[in-house]
């Protein structure tokens, strides 16, 4: 036998897996330069290695390079190109070599510090510990059959290196490069056991089959998984923080248009509320509740670049490799911006192997899920008559029943066939030295409400590459271009007009389009040539209501006045890094990232007449605005990993700087000689006075930080992480320029103790605890600490001599600083029965020094209010996540679910402030909600109605100390609770009525496949909140009524508890905010139901296509809720106070789609 | 190889250190588009901007606590027996509706505007008076004049506050985070004393006349007129009479020959104008300038709705319809046509139409009517009316002096002054009794914002305004805005609210 030393082997051949995996394995594997090692020392050395579908040579090279293991072997004896996959964390070299070599029939022995490989002389047992049982069935050797087969994953990708063992024997094989295997077994009674790391073991009865395709199902989240933790990664097994992770596979095949939407219902403790279904609109994301009155948005970090909220729209969900959510003190690595949690997004990189071209896309139609039940024309007339006669007026409509159904305005504005299409194409690959990933995405979504003025288009292009030039030098870059263009219907969730509010309030008597003007009661309006009324394409005028006016207009005509108006954004997002490794284990990385955004809008106001108060008779105007924003950041980090025996350390120090600037300019062009957006142009010659410019200034912002993190574990059993970050911000007051944010986390992997029962139901058990201080700098405005001088306090001297006046905005507050959130977390991770994973956390977050604008009394006379750190808020909660995967024959399934409970409470608002008002409704007598001490933020506040007075006797009987409490009430009026017991109904009788924030959020996910078919079911819901439904304009007596008003109290319907209809409303039945308007906001919604079919491999082979899958999918198929509105997902987290004034509902979508991988 | 690595490492670490060393300045930014107070008031030009800012609340048309439309005239007219609130419906501009029918409450009513804007004026005047002595390069003459203007303006704002709310905090220096809540209400006497002090000081520093380009800035005559008016409200009859006599005789003011020309946009700063609040029609305001209007939006507000007839702009909002009481009282008076326009009969006569507003009487304000001839040539018509509001004019000071003179015992000047006012419009002399002077004031100054104050100080409000629901002993002053009495302030709500 001839040996030759294969050295030097080029180190760069080792690249196979993602950069991140290398990074982590390098960190953890440590370094060891020992001159005199005996065989046992070498074989006991701890190795972490994670390489998939690579060659034996690559594995050996990796070990040689990273772990300083030297090999000697003969290329004649050993086939170095055999495919292997290995994924081991902190295992002895012996274990690693056993796994890699023994299955290939290779023996090894240690010679001094070298390992010599040789061909095995006998067939090595695949698994020596497997008890050898000879079954009765295979005793008949004459029945031996040869099975060929293929092992694939659920996407149809071949699994290379999977082991196939005939159950009860030592007879086995492993799959080749194409996932194929060949094995002779005893006979039809044999059972094959298929195993591959990261997947559940699978048993297949041979039966009559000779060609078997085995689809493996991914196991419960593997503990070898790597988790991104900010400026680095950590092994999931040793993570000590409350960090949730979603991988590409979890999001794959989910038809979401935004990343934040992909998080919904999938991560415990994360609430995603899409309170507008308008295409392209951003949901509100809250991690463990509302932590601040001013800004509770999580911090988004994409590939290490901190992105503002809007920036998250720039990343195509198809380009995501993983999303990690830092929920507890582990977020302290982002210091003053971390109190609302951190969302770390990692995008896909090219993977080694042949270049991959994938397409996925879908086309679908969208429609509304439900409509609100409103009165039709004859019902409307009846109810109007009822209200008028109740007030002692004459009825208006002589014969209501003759009026029929009239116009259903909701049918007019909703589209049941709004199209959506999304196409994504990606090209990726990697060689030893470089990897690349390029993708294109296109989304075109029409809205379901007045689609002419509601749509969203997005085009993405992204590319990233990295090169390993030298053993110690890696450089890479990442670039994304995004263009979005959207049309918006104007007012949503507002009673001031817009299609939704108009459809809810407009009388059904008015026709959508008028065919016979003279039949209209207000024919004069149409016939008046000075009224520029709006016509449809056929030249017929849109109906103008004779009964309802102000901002409530014909929504079809309204849409015409907004036709064409749009806003746009172009975003260029890029980053580049250089990483050097001067000595093994030490990595120094420098990254510069930038976002350059250009955005703006273009809108035209024609001359129009919608009704007597909503019109533009004088001049057309066009408004165009163009803005730009530049944010850059520079991050330098040094990471050093080392192990001493069982002690493993990783230390990180880093420094970061960030700056953002933004400005824009807008122009109003009055009196262009055209009357539509299509014809409008800023190029028309206009008098200078009719071309009016305005500037848009966003104050600059800088942040300078230093940070460090130490992670330590002893034998992966006792875990510790310490983090400290020091942030300086241009927003901090001059007395607090720098803030320091420390945290500590400990973990204890009990299942690694010797005494821990082996082979019990509990496979893994880790206890975690963390405590830390994080901040909220983003709740602070720029220069909020300073006394600034504002302009625009003008006066006119002489004839038209306008002089710009300047005066202080608000007094200075040099003590101003960040909000501070003290966060404590205790939890555990466990794996049971090998396929049930459990994660449980309990937390408490206390926000102190809550930022708010101090409500100076107006007598202070300032234009603005100063900010101050006053008040505390607390969030307490419990989170539970479960995951389970299993199979029944060829039916593979996994089920996962999560539920979180959060209780929010304002514990202090400082000495001066009793409460802040939250949420208003036009003409309501008082505010709808309050931020008050002892209550959840925005708790509903108002009167309590105790049903209506059914008779005068009941009014007379409602007394206090013999005095009538509501002497002026009439039968049919609300009986208000006299909360303060003073015998009168006053504003002091208002009380807290309910929580707009859900206490429970949950999500469940079910995936299954059978042969080539797959099904995905994903549902999500909330519980514990109330919604304030305020659809009807209180100040427009003639606005349309909800259908429930048909049951209003009348002498003939005296048992009703719906108050009598009255325009004057002297008892404020309708104008008082009260529990009358509150409804239960709980819902459960099937977000996704999808059926897929993967074309059989045999069909695709001829076309040389790897995978083709077709699917039918539906979003929002079913919503179970008691809420009687468009959509229960109203959301109270984003300053609308949980008030539904006609939110833009989410669409129900039906889609057909295609995934192709070449 | 290795040494090379160390060089690179060293270079990077040096870079890190370099970044860290310049951090402090990296974090110190200058705001864009605005100044820091610590750097401002550094030259005479900036001092002038502070003067302008102190004038600004005189004509703040939008703002107040709820940032709504807030011209004082609309609310005062709605409160009086000259006009109703009007508008689109019973809930259009709720503040005006509430004072129109005296359903004022701490949350609903015009007090939110009056309180906030006048205190904003006080703050601007306080800032001005605090900063002026520190402005480098400001000459003695300018210092004297600017100081006097600040004193006048502070007195002006406090005069409104004390008349409307009676007991208000007396704030003579700007407040900060530590002392803002520690401001008790001063007695009305203390406030009046401060007003007198400020006005007397202002008179000494103000010019008798100003250049045409500075028209609208305070003159000595204006300050004396205001002081006289203050004395009148304090019932210091003798002081009022002598001070107003000074104004009426020594400053060259003359009644306009034609009553109508007093209100003409082509006749701004006329000989009868003593203190004029200036509006501009040339600023091209749009709806996006909500907090900037220096045009006269009231003109738009009081126009008839959906009007199709001649002379007037068609798209008014129909506020402040004139009461039939006033129309009846003015029947036959030569000033009727300049004061009131009967849109009802005008549309009937011309075969045109208009849309009755809420509380429509058919009568509309004419002194500030949206006349087609005044329409601006650029910008949005609705938002760019150029009409000035003359807050103090000679006919007013004549009648105030007459009233003070009579109350103070009478020197005979009362008759002369009353006659002068009447003869200007061709009316014969009538006896200068108090009641006749009261009546003359109503007819001469109708819809100019004086009537409600007059009724209150004469004690006639409970009877004259009974038809609107005026409650004696309560509605003489406004409620204090709710938020001022909560959230830790020392301010107590007015009796009855």
Structure write-up:
The complex is a heterodimer of chains A (1158) and B (497). Chain A is 9% helix and 44% strand. Chain A is mainly β and 1158 residues long. In chain A, the strands form 16 sheets. Chain A has a 22-stranded antiparallel β-barrel. In chain A, α9 runs antiparallel to α11. The model of chain A is unreliable at 1-37 and 121-142 (pLDDT under 50). With 497 residues, chain B is mostly helical. Chain B has helices at residues 2-21, 23-27, 44-55, 72-79, 94-100, 111-131, 140-165, 188-205, 220-233, 237-250, 297-301, 324-330, 336-339, 343-350, 394-407, 413-424, 434-444, 451-457, 461-464, 482-485, and strands at residues 35-36, 62-63, 68-69, 273-277, 340-342, 363-365, 389-393. In chain B, the strands form three sheets. Chain B has a two-stranded antiparallel sheet. A two-stranded antiparallel ribbon of chain B has the order 4-7. In chain B, β2 and β3 (68-69) form a beta hairpin. The longest helix of chain B has 26 residues, at 140-165. The N and C termini of chain B lie far apart (87 Å). The model of chain B has no long low-confidence stretch (mean pLDDT 92). Chains A and B meet through β31, β32, β33, β37 and β38 of A and α1, α2, β1, α3 and α6 of B.
């Amino acid at each position: 036998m001839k040996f030759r030393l294969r050295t030097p082997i080029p180190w760069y051949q080792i690249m196979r897996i993602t950069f991140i995996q290398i990074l982590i394995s390098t960190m953890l594997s440590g370094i060891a330069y020992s001159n005199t090692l005996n065989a046992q020392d070498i074989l006991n050395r701890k190795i972490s290695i994670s390489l998939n579908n690579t060659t034996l040579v690559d594995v050996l090279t990796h070990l040689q390079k990273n772990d300083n293991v030297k090999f000697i072997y003969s290329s004649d004896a050993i086939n170095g190109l055999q495919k292997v996959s290995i994924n081991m964390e902190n295992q002895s070299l012996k274990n690693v070599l056993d796994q890699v070599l023994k299955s290939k029939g290779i023996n090894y022995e240690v010679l001094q510090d070298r390992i010599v490989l040789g061909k095995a002389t006998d067939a090595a047992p695949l698994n020596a510990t497997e008890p050898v049982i000879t079954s009765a069935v295979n005793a008949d050797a004459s029945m031996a059959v040869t099975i060929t087969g293929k092992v694939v994953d659920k996407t149809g990708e071949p699994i290379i290196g999977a082991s196939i063992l005939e159950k009860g024997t030592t007879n086995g094989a492993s799959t080749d490069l194409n996932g194929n295997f060949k094995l002779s077994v005893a006979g039809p009674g044999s059972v094959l056991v298929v195993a591959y790391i990261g997947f559940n073991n699978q048993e297949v009865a041979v039966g009559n089959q000779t060609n078997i395709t085995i689809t493996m199902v991914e196991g419960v989240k593997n503990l070898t998984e790597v988790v991104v933790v900010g400026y680095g990664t950590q092994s999931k097994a040793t993570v000590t923080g409350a960090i949730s992770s979603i991988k590409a596979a979890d999001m794959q095949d989910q038809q979401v248009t935004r990343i934040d939407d992909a998080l919904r219902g999938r991560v415990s403790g994360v609430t995603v509320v899409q309170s507008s279904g308008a295409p392209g609109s951003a949901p509100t994301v809250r991690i463990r509740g509302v932590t601040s009155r001013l800004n509770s948005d999580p911090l988004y970090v994409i590939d290490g670049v901190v992105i503002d909220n809007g920036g998250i729209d720039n990343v195509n969900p198809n380009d995501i490799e993983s999303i990690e959510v830092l929920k507890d003190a582990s977020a302290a690595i982002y210091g003053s911006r971390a109190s609302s949690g951190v969302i770390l997004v990692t995008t896909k990189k090219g993977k080694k192997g042949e270049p991959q071209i994938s397409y996925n896309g879908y086309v679908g139609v969208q429609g509304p899920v439900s409509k609100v039940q409103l009165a039709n024309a004859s019902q409307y007339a009846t109810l109007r008559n009822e209200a008028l006669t109740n007030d002692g007026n004459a009825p208006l409509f002589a014969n209501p029943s003759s009026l029929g159904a009239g116009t259903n305005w909701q049918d007019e504005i909703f589209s049941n066939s709004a199209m959506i299409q999304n196409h994504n194409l990606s090209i990726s690959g990697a060689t030893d030295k470089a990897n690349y990933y390029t993708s294109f995405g296109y989304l075109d979504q029409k809205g379901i409400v007045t689609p002419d003025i509601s749509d969203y288009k997005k085009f993405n292009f992204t590319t990233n590459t990295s090169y390993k030039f030298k053993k110690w030098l890696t450089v890479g870059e990442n670039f994304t271009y995004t263009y979005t263009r959207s049309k918006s219907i104007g007012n949503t969730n507002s009673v001031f007009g817009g299609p939704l509010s108009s459809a809810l309030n407009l009388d059904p008597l008015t026709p959508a389009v008028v065919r016979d003007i003279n039949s209209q009661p207000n024919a004069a309006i149409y016939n008046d040539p000075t009224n520029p009324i709006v016509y449809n394409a056929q030249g017929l005028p849109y109906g103008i209501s004779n009964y309802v006016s102000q901002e409530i207009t014909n929504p079809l005509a309204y849409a015409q006045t907004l036709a064409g108006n749009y806003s746009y954004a172009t975003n260029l997002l890029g980053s580049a890094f250089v990483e050097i490794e001067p000595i093994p284990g030490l990595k120094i990385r420098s990254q510069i990232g930038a976002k350059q955004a250009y955005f703006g809008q273009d809108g035209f106001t024609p001359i129009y007449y919608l009704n007597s108060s909503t019109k533009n008779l004088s001049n057309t105007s066009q408004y165009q605005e163009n803005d730009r924003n530049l944010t850059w950041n520079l991050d330098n980090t040094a990471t050093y990993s080392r192990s001493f025996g069982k002690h493993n350390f990783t230390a990180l120090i880093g420094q970061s700087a960030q700056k953002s600037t933004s400005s824009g300019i807008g122009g109003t062009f009055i009196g262009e000689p055209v009357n539509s957006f299509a014809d409008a142009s800023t190029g028309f010659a206009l008098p200078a006075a009719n071309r009016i410019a305005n500037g848009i200034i966003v104050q600059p912002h800088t942040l300078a930080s230093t940070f460090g993190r130490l992670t330590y574990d002893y034998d992966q059993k006792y875990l510790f992480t310490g983090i400290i970050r020091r942030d300086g911000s241009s927003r901090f007051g001059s007395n607090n320029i720098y803030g320091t944010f420390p945290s500590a986390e400990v973990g204890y992997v009990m299942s690694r103790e010797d005494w821990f029962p082996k082979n019990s139901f509990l496979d893994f058990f880790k206890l975690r605890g963390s405590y830390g201080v994080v901040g909220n700098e983003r709740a602070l405005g720029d220069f909020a600490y300073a006394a600034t001088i504002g302009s625009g306090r003008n006066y006119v001297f002489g004839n038209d001599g306008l002089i710009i006046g300047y005066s202080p905005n608000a007094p200075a507050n040099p003590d101003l600083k960040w909000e501070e959130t003290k966060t404590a977390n205790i939890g555990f991770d466990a794996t049971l029965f090998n396929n049930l994973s459990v994660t449980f956390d309990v937390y408490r977050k206390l926000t102190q020094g809550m930022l708010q604008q101090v409500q100076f009394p107006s007598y202070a006379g300032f234009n603005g209010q100063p900010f101050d750190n006053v008040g505390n808020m607390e969030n307490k909660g419990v989170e539970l996540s479960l995951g389970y995967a299993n199979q029944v024959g060829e039916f593979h399934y996994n089920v996962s679910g999560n539920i979180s409970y959060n209780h929010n409470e304002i514990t202090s608002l400082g000495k001066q402030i009793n409460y802040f008002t939250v949420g208003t409704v036009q003409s309501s007598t008082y505010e709808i909600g309050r931020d008050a001490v002892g209550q959840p933020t925005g708790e509903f506040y108002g009167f309590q109605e105790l049903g209506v007075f059914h008779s005068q006797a009941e009014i007379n009987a409602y007394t206090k100390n013999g005095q009538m409490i509501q002497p002026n009430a009439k039968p049919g009026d609300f009986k208000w609770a006299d909360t303060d017991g003073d015998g009168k109904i006053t504003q002091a009788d208002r009380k807290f009525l309910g929580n707009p924030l859900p206490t429970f959020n949950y999500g469940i996910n079910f995936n299954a496949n059978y042969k080539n078919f797959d099904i995905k079911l994903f549902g999500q819901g909330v519980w514990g909140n109330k919604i304030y439904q305020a659809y009807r304009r209180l100040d427009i007596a003639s606005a349309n009524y909800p259908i429930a008003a048909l049951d209003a109290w009348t002498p003939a319907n005296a048992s009703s508890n719906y108050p009598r209809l009255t325009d004057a409303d002297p008892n404020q039945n309708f104008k008082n905010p009260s529990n009358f308007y509150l409804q239960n906001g709980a819902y459960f919604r099937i977000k996704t139901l999808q059926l897929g079919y993967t074309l059989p491999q045999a069909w695709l082979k001829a076309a040389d296509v790897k995978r083709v899958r077709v699917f039918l999918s539906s979003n929002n198929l079913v919503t179970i809720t008691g809420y009687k509105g468009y959509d229960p997902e109203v959301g109270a987290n984003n300053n609308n106070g949980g008030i539904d004034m006609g939110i833009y509902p989410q669409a129900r979508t039906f889609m057909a789609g295609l995934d192709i991988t070449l | 190889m290795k040494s090379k690595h160390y060089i690179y490492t060293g270079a990077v670490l040096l870079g890190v250190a370099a970044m860290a060393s310049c951090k402090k300045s990296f974090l110190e930014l200058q705001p864009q588009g605005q100044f820091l107070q610590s750097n401002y008031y550094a030259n005479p030009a900036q001092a002038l901007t502070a003067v302008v800012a102190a004038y600004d609340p005189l004509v703040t048309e939008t703002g107040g606590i709820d940032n709504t439309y807030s011209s004082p005239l609309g609310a005062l007219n709605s409160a009086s027996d000259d006009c109703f609130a009007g508008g689109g419906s019973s809930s259009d501009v709720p503040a005006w509706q509430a004072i129109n029918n005296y359903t004022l409450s701490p949350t609903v009513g015009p007090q939110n505007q009056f309180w906030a804007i006048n205190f904003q004026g006080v703050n601007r005047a306080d800032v001005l008076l605090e900063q002026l002595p520190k402005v480098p390069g400001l000459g003695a003459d300018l210092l004297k004049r600017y100081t006097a203007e600040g004193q006048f303006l502070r007195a002006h704002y406090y005069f409104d506050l004390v008349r409307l709310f009676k007991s208000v905090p007396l704030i003579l220096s700007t407040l900060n985070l530590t002392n803002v809540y520690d401001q008790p209400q001063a007695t009305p006497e203390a406030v009046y004393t401060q007003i007198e002090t400020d006005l007397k000081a202002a008179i000494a520093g103000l010019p008798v006349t100003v250049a045409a380009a500075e028209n609208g800035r305070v003159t000595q005559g204006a300050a004396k007129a205001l002081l006289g008016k203050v004395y009148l409200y304090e019932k210091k009859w003798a002081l009022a009479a002598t001070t107003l006599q000074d104004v009426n005789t020594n400053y060259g003011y003359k009644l306009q020959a034609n009553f109508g020309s007093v209100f003409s946009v082509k006749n701004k700063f006329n000989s009868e104008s003593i203190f004029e609040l200036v509006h501009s029609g040339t600023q091209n305001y749009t709806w996006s300038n909500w907090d900037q209007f220096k045009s006269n939006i009231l003109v738009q507000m009081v126009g008839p709705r959906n009007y199709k007839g001649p002379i007037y702009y068609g798209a008014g909002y129909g506020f402040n319809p004139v009461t039939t009481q006033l129309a009846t009282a003015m029947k036959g008076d030569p000033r009727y046509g300049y004061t009131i326009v009967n849109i009802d009969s005008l549309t009937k006569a011309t075969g045109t139409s208009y849309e009755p507003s809420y509380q429509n009487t058919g009568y509309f304000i004419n002194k500030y009517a949206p006349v087609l001839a005044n329409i601006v040539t650029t910008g949005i018509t609705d938002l760019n009316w150029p009409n000035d509001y003359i807050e103090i004019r000679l006919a007013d000071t004549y009648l105030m002096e007459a009233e003070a003179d009579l109350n103070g015992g009478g020197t005979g000047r009362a008759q002369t002054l009353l006659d002068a006012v009447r003869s200007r419009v061709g009316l014969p002399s009538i006896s200068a009794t108090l009641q006749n002077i009261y009546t003359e004031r109503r007819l001469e100054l109708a819809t100019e914002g004086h009537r409600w104050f007059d009724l209150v100080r004469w004690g006639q409000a409970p009877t004259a305004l009974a038809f609107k629901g005026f409650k004696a002993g309560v509605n003489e002053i406004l409620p204090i805005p709710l938020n001022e009495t909560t959230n830790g302030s020392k301010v107590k709500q007015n009796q009855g609210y």
